[in-house]
Structure formats: C-alpha cells, structure tokens
Amino acid sequence: MASTTTAWSIAPEPFDSPVAAALWRAYYTEVSDRWYLLHEGRATDPDELEREIAANTGDRLAPPDGVLLVARYAGEPAGTAGVRMMDAATAELKRVFLRTDARGKGGAALLVTAAEEQARRLGAERIVLDTRADLVEARALYARLGYEESEPHNDDPYADHWFTKRLARPAAATSG
C-alpha cells in the first residue's frame, strides 16, 4: 500500500529494480565516501565501490521477510528505507537514505514511519538499526522518532551506534 503526503509518495519497490539499484548506488557512494574522507582523506576506490555494490544486492529486503520502500518527491525517486525480519518479533531498519536534493523536506521521517508500518505488517514488535558515529543527521532523526540507543545487535565493523524502538500495535478498527 502506498502512502502519500503532499509531494511525497512512498511505496514498496523490488530490491533489484532499476530505481532501487540507482538509489542503492547513490546511498552506498555517499556513506562510503564519507567514511573514507573522514578516516583516510580520500574518496572510495571505484573498484571497491563496484565490488561492494555487487556484493550487497539487497535481496534480504525481498518478501516474504523483507520490503524495500522507495520515496518519490514530486514523482522523482528520492530515497529508500528497507526492513528485514531478524526473527519472529524483531525487524531491522536498513538503507534509510534520501538524495541530497530531497533533504530538508520531511521525507526522512515519512520513510522511517512507513518502514515501521511495514515492520508491523511483517509481525515485528520492535525494530532495530545500526549506524555510524559520523552520520550525525541519522542519529538525530532516530532519536527524534523515539529510537533509543541499545546494546549491539550485530557485529558490523562499521557500526558505532545501535538503536531500538518498540512498535505500538495498530489500534483495533471499530465498527460504527
């Protein structure tokens, strides 16, 4: 089911679609370049970038245990958020990203909220994520949306911060 707010629309997208692939490349290029510039004073090596993009296809974000959402702003692909079930009650939020020209327009909160709804539909009672220390904007977003820092839930060598959030059950529908 798609959600729409003003110029934003968010809907599931196959992880291997051309739109998803282009947004994955933009996401990975940005976070990789940020890391290398901070730690090594250089951009990502193009060969390494291609290897990592090919190795991380996003297939864990495919049904029945996952979903990739694509946000569009004024009809143009602008960002992604993925959810994958880790166990029967826990979902993991992945690949939250907005293109730089789409930032500051409210899309990030809409994407995360839509991902939380997808996690609930998959049966999750809580959602977890990890992020890096240099991604301060992401950490601020998660804190603003009610995520709390938690113990590590994985051993990702690039993760510096782990977050969790209990997912409220949807209100029961009432009949009139």
TrEMBL record:
Gene3D superfamilies: 3.40.630.30. It comes from the Bacteria. Coiled coil: none annotated. Pfam families: Acetyltransf_1. InterPro entries: Acyl_CoA_acyltransferase, Bact_Acetyltransf, GNAT_dom. Residues 22-169 form the N-acetyltransferase domain. Keywords: Acyltransferase, Transferase. CDD domains: NAT_SF. This is GNAT family N-acetyltransferase.
